[in-house]
User: Fold these one by one.
Assistant:
Number 1:
Amino acid sequence: MKLQQHHLQDLASGAAFLATGGGGDPFLSLLCAQQAIKQFDAAELISIDALPDDAAIVAVGSVGAPTTSLELLPSIDDPAIAMRAFERHTGLNIDAVVSFEIGGANSLIPIVAAAAAGIPVIDGDGMGRALPEVQMMTYSIAGISPTPSIAVDYAGNTATFEGITVLEYEEQIREFAMARGGMVTTVEFGMNAGQLRSCLVPDTVSLAISIGEVLRIDRGDAAQLIDRLQPLFAPTPYGEMRILFSGTVADVATSVVGGYDIGFALLRSDRDPTKQIKVDIKNEYLTVWDGPKLLASVPDLITFVDTETGQPINSERLSFGQRVTIVGIGCPPHFRTADALAVVGPRCFGFDFDFTPIEQLLA
Amino acid sequence: MRIGIDVGGTHTDAVLLDGDDVVETCKVLTSADVESGIVNVLAQLQEQSSLTASADSVMIGTTQFTNAVIERRSLRPVAAIRLGSPSGRGLPPFVGWPDDIAKAIGGVTFELEGGYLYNGSILASLNDTKVEAVVDELRRLQIEAVAITSAFAPMNAAPELHVKQCIRKALPHCRITMSHEIGRVGLLERENAAILNASLLHFSDHVIDGIEKALANAKLTCPVFISQNDGTLMAVSFARQFPALTFASGPTNSLRGAAKLTGLNEAIVIDIGGTTTDIGVLRGGFPRESNLVVEVGGVRTNFRMPDILAMGVGGGSLVNADGLSVGPKSVGHKLVKDALVFGGSVLTASDIAVAAGQADMGNTSVIKGLDSKLVSSSLNVIEKMLAAGIQKMNPGKTQLPVILVGGGACIAPRALSGSIQIVRPDHCDVANAIGAAIAQVGGEAEKFVSYSDMSREDAIEQVRHDATLKAVSAGADLNTVRVNDIEEVAIPYMDNGSTRIRVKVIGEVAELNAKTKAASAP
């Protein structure tokens, strides 16, 4: 499928839905993708199965503090500059690109790269949602190294990272981003299609476009809109989707701890005023508590939508008095193995309990 | 003694206030040239009260500039100069604008090195040779209006000021808007606001000249202020430079007017007009602001705008013969001709209100034959719509009281289900003009700071100082300026307590306050 202009807006809103409150506002990435397609050509979206095992693939995206790009704008040739530098450094010819995470702004960066380089973008990603760190990608969990990696700053200067562990890389790339204005574009995870096939969360780009389409066409009452979204998830590796709660935001308290926007939101039920729901936040929505009872936790997906319009609400924009509906979705099986839960489970976010799948919590 | 004037799409309203007391109110039709509508309304006000001539100040709210952008009229071409290269390659000024308005305003853009990073270090140094080349090009193209935007200008505006000076020296007649004067953090949105403002400067001369002529005609020599979108005032000389700051001042004034008329600071305000109903929320006597990005005529901006729910029901709404639907179609300003009670042939919400005994207008005998079931079922529809709107906007656990204002307020039922307290203040039909009349002068400033570099108190004090300077330059009395709102937003992924601080201050109008003091001096 050729990704045309009209797909991009839907992809951006679908990506905001899958971002579970984090992932950064996709607006600037959307503008970049729209301009890139205008300037170059529509990018081809392909299934991983369309590629031979030895095809060379890289993951492309942005790293840093999304708030800083409100002023330090991204450039539409950043991803292409990083890819060319990667090819020079490794001697590889890149055949296709793939996304870090489908949730939020990074869903659209590979399209900018693909349009500029004239290569296809793979339908799928390394998270199936949004998560904050590089070791949380399914690529890394499968044992693929993010390095050698090329990062490009706002001025088009590149830096190379190699010979380090994934955790060292996570620390160094973030330092580099902060030293160079707050946001950088990176090309990471040089891999072949055979490796990617084993760990890709498949078809998430086309899923996000379909979600965005429903959000646009069926904009309105959240419960009805969720009914129309449900069938989209049925053929995917995601688990069941259900409404966890509907009510009003009574309090939001977040502060920056260790570089993250950490805090919680309290919600009051519309039907039963004595019922109080608490949601922990670390950029993304991480848990939903009904009193002492856990209803869902990371890495299962927790998404807030506006009760009247059904549109997703980013955690930065959550505020007192908003009427919201909380939706829980079982995460792809990639995140439910012991190896995966060791890097994306509740304990990795500072909670003192192990992961229980949403379908067991609600049983 | 102050005069408040609201220049709406259909009516121009005026009120005369003595302190908190409403002395007189009047309403005339808005004229195409704005000026004669104001001349007429002031003449009528003068007729009703001779005190009009002794007013200490005049406050005017107008939708002229919002409408100009929405209708793409009276806009002039603008050269957009951005200082942020080498960032933002491929995202030039006017990116993402609707084609028609980009065509009306756009075309000439320049992207030069300049601006700062989040931590205060230089993004790229200004290149004076390139700046001179831009000036030459502006001269060659005979550009009349320019918008200058540099990266992180709300933190450090030096590059914008420098380029403005270079243009000013060479082209003294060129009109210039600098982004830091008009918008907050968010480069594209701030740049858009600066461009829209620059393109309105010519029209602004026309409108402000008209206002000044109308006041001179009425022999009013007192200071004149224009309402801004956040419910504060700017001096008329300031408004001439910043017409874009009037966007959305209409709903803000009606909310502020409702607070004044009722003394309620926490309430839901329903402003029922001829075609639409705007529902907003008062918090601490000021409108609750929208969190979302606000588009004006399809252009993304980040102006401070009230959070408004607009619904398609008003005094002129068409009522279906089965009484099961009201609006969204409306006879609008033709109500005084088309409604049944005015001798027309269209059944409107106002006719229903008259039939139900809620309003007294026109010829009431013609609607005596209306089916009482039709009347009660239509009222029921209106009640359901208003109740749904109230429920959507009510912020917390407790139901806030509801204030009804606007020319179409009579169509609302006397009571709403759920024992909601409804307040219908006197003079509710001129709430907008009252909102304009009672407004104060405000100022806002914003900075990215790191609490590891300076204490929270010092940082807030710095931003408060900047906001105060802005308020005073807009006409506030320094001694009365106080903090209205402080917003701190922590920045994710930054491990050093990096925070965005925004401070809003408000104060009394300087001249008015001086007079009050003089009057009360022993």
Note: The two ends of chain B are 20 Å apart (CA to CA).
Number 2:
Amino acid sequence: MPKRDDIKSVLVIGSGPIIIGQACEFDYSGTQACRVLREEGLRVILVNSNPATIMTDPEFADATYVEPLTADVVAKVVQRERPDALLPTLGGQTALNVAVELHEAGVLDTYGVELIGAGVDSIRMAEDRTAFSRAMDEIGLDTAASARATTVAEARAFADRSGFPLLVRSSFTLGGAGSGIVRDRDTFERAVREGLTASPIGEIQLDESLLGWKEFELEVMRDARDNCVVVCTMENLDAMGVHTGDSITVAPAQTLSDVEFQTMRDAAFAVLRKIGVATGGANVQFAVDPAGGRMTVVEMNPRVSRSSALASKATGFPIAKIAALLAVGYTLDEIPNDITAQTLAAFEPSIDYVVTKIPRFAFEKFPGADHELGTRMRSVGEVMAIGRTFTESLGKALRSLEAGDGGLLGRTAATDDEELAQLLVTPTDHRLSDADAALTRGWEPARVARLTGYDPWFVDQLLQVVELRRALRACETLANADDRLLRRAKRAGFSDATLAVLLGADEVAVRRHRGRRGVTPVFKTVDTCAAEFAADTPYHYSTYEEETEVRPSDREKVVILGSGPNRIGQGIEFDYCCVHAVYALRDAGYETVMVNCNPETVSTDYDTADRLYFEPLTLEDVLAVWEAETAAGGAPLGVLVQLGGQTPLRLARDLEANGVPILGTPPAAIDLAEDRGRFCAVLDGLGIAQPPGGIARSLDEALAVAARIGFPVLVRPSYVLGGRAMEIVYTAERMRAWLDRNAGEGAVLVDRFLERAVEVDVDAVYDGRELFVGGVLEHIEEAGIHSGDSACVIPPYTLGRAQLRQLREYTEAIAAALGTRGLINIQYAVRDDLISVIEANPRASRTVPFISKATGVPLAKVAARVMVGATLAGLREEGLVPARDAVTGPPLPHVAVKEAVLPFDRFPGADTRLGPEMRSTGEVMGIDTDFGVAFAKSQAGTGQMVLPTKGTVFCSIANRDKRAMIFPVKRLAELGFDVLATEGTAETLRRAGVRAEVVAKVSEAPAGVATVVDRIVAGDVDLVLNTPMGGSGPRTDGDAIRTAAVSHGVPCITTLSGILAAIQGVEALRANAVGVRSLQSYHRALARQ
Amino acid sequence: MTAPDAVLVLEDGTAFRGEGFGAGGTAHGEVVFNTALTGYQEVLTDPSYHRQIVTMTTPHQGNYGVTPADAESGRVQASGLVVRSVSRTFSSHRATGGLPEALTGAGVVGITEVDTRRLVRHVRSAGAMRAAVSTEVLDADALLAEVLRAPGTDGADLTAEVTAGAAYDLPADGHARHRVVAYDFGMKRSILRLLAASGCAVRVVPAGTPAEDVLALEPDGVFLSNGPGDPAAVRHGVAAIQRLLEHRVPTFGICLGHQLLARAVGASTYKLRFGHRGANQPVRDEATRAVEITSHNHGFAVDAATIPADGPFGTVAQSHVNLNDGVNEGLRCDDVPAFSVQYHPEAAPGPHDARHLFGRFTALMAAGA
């Protein structure tokens, strides 16, 4: 069936900000879809609030709306663009939900927009657990016993029938929010209440627990002619009970016989047909009882998902791209297989390797949060590794994580067997290590399998690693380990770093020894067909075998190192920069070579770079790629390390030491910027101020520095990204406590904290001759809150021309003094007329994509070209760089606000106060010609802090802020808000003529009196204004208020400047001034300036 | 970790080193590869793999053990097995034993820790060829000399080596609606099971059974099974089929049965460079345009260009085609009640997409009754 000719334009909905459970996999899928639909000649209209995505680059759609993903805003886009069809299956659950709302509001009917890919009934049936169970029953498939409840009493009735444990799941939520396993009656009612609250429709699903059953996922596709294929089978190492996003996942499934697999395959197709996935991709999850083989259907998603991104990378079958083509009418046998270039998409990939995915967690960011994993997803990223065996792919995945030991070493936190047994039973982020430790202690594999729920086959694989490790340790030295044993260890995924530990050598010695003995890797190809056909696409992975498949090339090559697994502080923004570098260098005629291990990203799409190496970002693995490329047509020009965040930067010096040229800013310059003492000297030499501070290696030294400069001080370990462990410390006792918690971090930086200063980020490119300022961002929150968590605005709204010019001068001077070639990001604190430098980073920053979206200047592309030797003057001639920059040119005719999205709802118990340690997972952009509207859009875009237009505002303001907040609160009262305040705040307001109802603080309320927290929980409060008192302990009134607000979805603003911005936003919303406009239109207006 | 060394040598001298498992010794055969992700037991016990050394491209083999329920014949048929990593343990509630033990019991040599991808890429370009795997002759040159002395299978009728010694009966599941005679050229048990499940009472007859003996049974239909070797060598089978077609007996052929039917109606067959062996081959039904993902195991194929539009049995046409390489996958006879497919609708291992063809056979018999 050829393409439908009745569809000329398609609206694609993205997934919005990166949140836990919905990450950059949807940028990957959306980018694929937009590109292929445009290639098909369709007009593509895109809505996505996330500026850090590749899909929102203006060239990927005809009209790109960086607007909040709410039904009313998308309705405005529909009204303006009049698309023929809406494709909702590529933007996660967010897009499906918006599509359903648009349908329900009658918008799709009114404007004659056809939903393609999946219909409303299918979306509903897949999400509504009861309807789904009934549908499965009708086609003879088994599901766990279940019931739906909207009240605690209904839930209790089910529990009485089915017993414990059972599963509570909130309806219509993402990534399992409001869901969990309940093992006993004591915790049951609380879980039920939480689930009911989390569900937008106040409903929960109760299920018979399949705890301990094996979990499988099938990625399937269906076309309009009802042809169905299975793209990939996946098996979770962690049994049922752990969210699949938090499980270690293996592809293909390893423990299913053909009989069982084919039964599952038949069932998956039956599910697709029953739910009615018209065309496209879906995933179906199954649970299998290991004892008797009973198979039940767990769930299905009628859309592409995180799993389909993984499956695409694992097999080379581009699910999202093909789903988009199927949605517009093609059938599978009409679509070519890009990888082989000679076969078609109508087939099922066969893979001759093993893929392992391991989630990456961020519990260290949320002290107080429980590490136990359950049905609520909490990982913030993932890595994937490819090996020819399970152990090889597992070893490579472990070192890709950049966390833990980088390989299994038999380590556990358990001190005795009883404790170890308990750890094996409890699913956590470290259970694999605990299992490895138990086997190392000689526990029976069957016992380990029983306790962990890991299939015995996987446990035996782990045991093989344990046995090899034992043999290696027995050698004692590198010289004693014979080549056969070394090769065996490398084939089982042992890293050089692990071998170094086991053989008492250092990593360099291990690598040299291997090289001399010929124990070196070869590179194989991901080809969708297990080598049955020749592969056209160079998508490679390393292994220790006999034949390498890297094809020679005589073009000039550049290696780009990606940013590894998403984590807080290093996410999609860096992948965006890497992908832009690929595009820019490819356009300039270079052959691009990408190395990365994150399956969610655009950078690891096989058709992003000319060559893709899906490899860990460690020195060992990157050097192996370098050597393979050198052997295939000569050494590349060099490696780009400054675009992928800290991951590639950490490797820069060692790569250089191994003779690999680092392109752009040299590692020495990066060190100079990060070395506190030397950087101070640079600033002193330039006559540029910075907050007084010093470096300390002990408590005494730290206190001495603090005594010299005065409290409050900002303390942080040196060499960190995302402000990890950074804190503002007000007293000596807190300094001691901080050092206790962060022992072993090495040198510590202690700086004077500039209270009440405005923080500014400058992102610029320096080519050795001149500077181009991409943007000056003013933070809405004051200095002291991590820039990644702070809302910020471009152009800066309180700085004058003179200050901007001064910032530009400073930036140019620092860039030159450091020896920058490429991007530089400098954070400044501006208080009154004093500008001081907080830090300088000669590398890509998190704000680069936001600036590019706001200004239309492709900063990362410019930087990539500069790094390989182009000049800004030359790029200006090419048209890549405008004549004047963000300071020298005219001011932007519009305003863009970036707001952070925080994951506190996933970490009950963790402190929600913002501070110098970054904790946001993603960002959104609000753009408009009016600041208030742009701010309101940025808040709406987060989906967490939607500003109210009426209702009740609660105020509790620190004394230092009380005077400044009178007028804003008065304004809210004028707009018709009722005001609720703590006693002191109410008193101040009353004196200014604002009527405020007094509500009791948590700590002061007599028994029986409703506190502010009670009022928030009761739903009486629509907006919380609460500035922290400063220097107080973690469990204060403020924390209780903020926690209650976050968990009940009430917007909570914690800074004075944030309050001012919010009020402008509320005014804009009340004036109904929120319109929509495409990025292309904003950029055209800029070009006319 | 004390597995014996083993070596695999191809007749062009290419050698692969690994470790032995299963039985020790030396095994000869044609080296082929199969890309199915699951189903090693079905593959190994499929008589079509007789005198072949099978390479499985999926790295881990033996993970879920073996069970009599999944055997496609009474023994391991392949002469050798080449894998990247054989499992020393197995895990499945269905399993009754492990793969290495099953090979040991069958006297079949296995070799593991082989760069099977290199082997597949070599066979893909150089073609399937004679080979030997050995745990006793570890000198590649010495083993190569043995390979070159061993007889090849091209032009050989191997059906006699795998067919049933005598005819036997299998009742239909439930009420018998059709009486079918099945020619056993090396038939998989799954085919018999599906015939029985389709209401056929089956008499299985040896490969060399004359047509007259079959006609004397007055069957409602005749089934032509899969089997090993070169179809051109199975002349007695072709002659028998021609007699049956003259009597307009409804006929259904699979794999070798398809090739023999093709030869019987006047088409010719040829050897593919490396064959189709796997569970992911897309086949399109030219009448409905539907695509099925199918199970394959064939080294020979019907030359589509030679299918006679007007031959001794009237109009014959290509009914199915392989979307990967355009190879013929099925025949439709317009003037005699016969059809056949090159691939395996009984799957085992592989997808069930084409099982409905057994229904097409019973419909053909019903129409002929």
Note: Chain A touches chain B through 61 residues (CB under 8 Å).
